[in-house]
Amino acid sequence: MNWLLAVIQTMLFVALAPLLSGWLKWCKCHLQNRKAPSLLQPYRNLLKLTRKQPVVAEHASWIFTKSPYIVFSAMVLAASVVPLIAVDLPSAASADVIVLVGFFAFARFFLALAGLDIGTAFGGMGSSREMTISSLAEPAMLMAVFTLTMTASTTNLSLAIEHVLHEGLVLRPSFVFAMFALILVAIAETGRIPVDNPATHLELTMIHEAMILEYSGRHLALIEWASQLKLMLYGVLIANIFLPWGIAQGFSAQALSYGLLTIIGKLGVLAILLAISETLVAKMRLFRVQEYLSFAYLLGLLGMLSHIILEASR
Amino acid sequence: MVLILAYAAVLFSFASGILALLTNQRPRLETLGQKYLARFPKHQRCRNMLNDGFQESRYPILLRQSTFVLLGLSGLLALSAGLGVLIGQQVLTDQIPLGLPWLPWHVRFDGLSGFFFLIIGIAVIAISLYGPGYVQAYQEEKHPFAVLGLFTGLFVAGMLLVLLADDAFFFMIAWELMSVASYFLVAFQHENSANRRAAFLYLLMAEVGALAIILSFGVLASFSDGLTFDALRHANLSSTWASIAFVLALLGFGMKAGIVPIHVWLPEAHPVAPSHISALMSGVMLKVAVYGLIRFCFDLLGDVHWQWGVVLLGLGTLSALGGILYAMMQPNLKRLLAYSSVENIGIIFMVLGLAMIFMANGFPQLAALGLLAALFHAFNHALFKNLLFLGAGILQHQTHSLDIDSMGGLIKRMPQTSFLFLIGCMSISSLPLFNGFVSEWLAFQTALQVNVLDNGVLRSLIPVAAAALALTAALAAACFVKVFGLIFLGLPRSRNSEKAQEVEDKGMLLALKLLAGLCFFFGIFPSLIINLLNNVAKQLLGLSLPNDTALSWMWLAPVSAQKASYSPLLVLISVLIATGISFWFLRRNPETKTMRRSEAWDCGFGGLNARMQYSSSAFTMPFRRIFAKVWLIDEQITKDMQGAQDLDVAAIHYHLQVQDHSWPRLYQPIANAINQLARQVGRIQTGNIRVYLGYSFVTLILLLWVVSL
């Protein structure tokens, strides 16, 4: 029963991811005085892409054609570990938060290889930049996550969230720092403004798009879906770790539906905030990203230190 | 019984060395054989076989193969001996009547030695599969097989003896055997002056390190009666002397292990040796140094101080970060791998430091976790670094180059090698499902238990070190994306890589397959090794992980199931399900199932050629800019001008040289100081015979005076 619930939660996660990016686009369009596409547009795009025959470059090896499946599966696996509507699901025990970071690394490894596979300059550029940014983002992210895991003294996400729920509403300076660090990392890792611009092609500053330029058809669909999943994963992490209230602790139908509603509400608000920040902030130069990410790391470090100095129970 | 296996392993590796010496003795052996067989005229078949074997063309091949078979048997015996002592949880002791008359060689074979026997065993088996195909390329006149085979055998025997030694004297003899034998292997291709220089540097630093180890044993020995490890264990040291012994041991073993800043010999020496030897040196010899340090600190010194742990943690962090950052900038594949060994040794030292800190603060259970993580990482590093070095050997064999920038597109031409190399790259980048990830995960788990410590400085220092570990892992992933992407993907960058073929020798591929298979297997079932390691921790620290932690074959929960758990098998199954469903779902339509091949799109620019691809220096450019202070970078761009008034650019030359800081900062001053000193000493050497006679006279008078006192 519990395993069934875990599978259902994962499927829900995968199914809702395009909706989140549709909602984000809708908010952004309205903020920028443009006419918004329907909320279901991402689904239509994915469906359209899966129906097309993929065109693959002549030099492409199996790395190029298999990477989309690997990337997508890694993201689905990550989604199965993160509690969406209920804690205490058995799937959360199979991998903890460090493994979650490992899943992201796995997906990135293959995406970067796929970028190098065709032998175009754009692909190499994208891979090189993606690996640079991620290698700076990963320590910052782990620093933020460690603050949480040291407070809860577990790296199991589900148990950590339960711990936060148990403690009740306590204002922890460490959590404030860690949350901001995680938000900055999330923006960098999901390729949003000001680090990368998801809406442009053919810009010499592009990162994520440069790697996947050569993809088409179902391969492109999988990669697009994977990046939508990644956005949602970070959203859920921020929402459920730092503001876990509303998540279902039992498996009754009422608790679950309440959990679903609250997470949709939380993600909706987060998306609005992201849309506002993307409208207000301009994209920054590539070599300022390091300063941005060092700042994120610094916030994570401050969170950690304030946990050790102010909050540790001795 | 187990001890006999261990002895047999040593003897077989000696025997393989001796056998290799017979390369040039074919005529003599033949006459000997004929004479012997003449006594038994009936054995016609034996004679035929003998004649067959002594044919001029077949003899060297046969000899080479049998040398490696002996070496492989030695590996197999070492493996079974190691497993035997680990499973049996015994401590075996013995004495061999060799060495000094009042000090026979003491032998002790316990869990820790057994575990390193296991590592050496696996590596040597892989080498023996790989060797026959690889050494074929060497010409007998220039690079005699006798030399290579002899010193390979001695090298392996030396390493095994180090692990068996139970007194300081025997230990140093075995240690020197290992060092000197490997010196000859580094100097094997000595026609190149750079190789001779590298070999000399290696020998120099190995001997300085050995001196430090001798001194550290000396410190211990002066507080105890005797040189046996048993006596040293009971030495009663003040904490100052213990710290001095620790620093000396750290210098000695650290120099062999290659921690920053005493690592400079490593990236020079490892690349110039033949590839299977580089694999042994990088994958196994460095581990023997780690073994020495563990044996010295946790076993002989016993009472560890947390300050030592902090030193190890700091040096480990420095090595891990420095190693991978330097590795990233190397265009030569084997140099890159050598630097990446520095990184991995750094990680091992970090976790050992954590173990020491927990041990000194009275948390032996967490110390056991740290030790376990360190040993497991040592094991994993031996597997994937051997795999990568052997893969590099194949690449060199097939493309006649080690320059990453001259390769490309090899995945089409060498499908099997590329797949196996990819597994190595994924393991070393610590991606989930592979063994490198598990040990790194354990390292993080150890670091996250920091809450139990009282010391506030330590509690804030260790998470920062953990973040540095995360940075290291991410940089390693970037580095190996570069390695795999530039070597195997894209378009070929040179004629040699365009013409490259898959290697034909089955044994070479088999060695790679064995190692890659183990990398994957222990990534999915890490508990097998961890249970063995638990026994080592029990013997060494007196405590192991609690039994009630779910150390089952499927779950990995080192502290307790509530704190952290990881089940690689479940992850693997879910990945397969997710991939399977998406694969089946998206390819169900027969019309779109096949992919259409066409030219690369490249944003519609067209006219793609191999020179437009990202190169190694282009790929690492962002890192060079961000971490600019780490290297000494010499970057020059010159333009050739032409046309009227020299305004048109005809060609652009780009020159990039990236150097290690430790040379000019640390070694050059030392070398200068020694030269200075030598010059001062040289002043008394006037070259005038009367002055020398005067010196002799004064010395004589002085001695007479001393005697008469």
TrEMBL record, chain A:
Broad class of where this protein is predominantly found: membrane
An annotated Gene Ontology molecular function: lyase activity
InterPro entries the UniProt entry points to: ComplexI_Subunit1, NADH_UbQ_OxRdtase_su1/FPO
Subcellular localization, as worded in the UniProt entry: Membrane
Keyword check for Cytoplasm: no
Membrane topology: Multi-pass membrane protein
Keywords per UniProt: Lyase, Membrane, Transmembrane, Transmembrane helix
Statement: the UniProt record of this protein carries the keyword Coiled coil: no
Stretches that traverse the bilayer: 69-90, 97-116, 136-157, 169-188, 231-248, 255-277, 292-310
Gene Ontology cellular component annotations, sorted alphabetically: plasma membrane
PANTHER family listed in its UniProt record: FORMATE HYDROGENLYASE SUBUNIT 4, FORMATE HYDROGENLYASE SUBUNIT 4-RELATED
Record's protein name: Formate hydrogenlyase
Organism: Methylomonas lenta
UniProtKB/TrEMBL annotation, chain B:
Signal peptide residues on this chain, from the entry's feature table: none
Ligase recorded as keyword: no
MF terms (GO), sorted A to Z: oxidoreductase activity
Coiled-coil annotated spans: none
Gene Ontology CC entries for this record: plasma membrane
PANTHER family named among the record's database cross-references: FORMATE HYDROGENLYASE SUBUNIT 3-RELATED, HYDROGENASE-4 COMPONENT F
UniProt name for this protein: Hydrogenase 4 subunit B
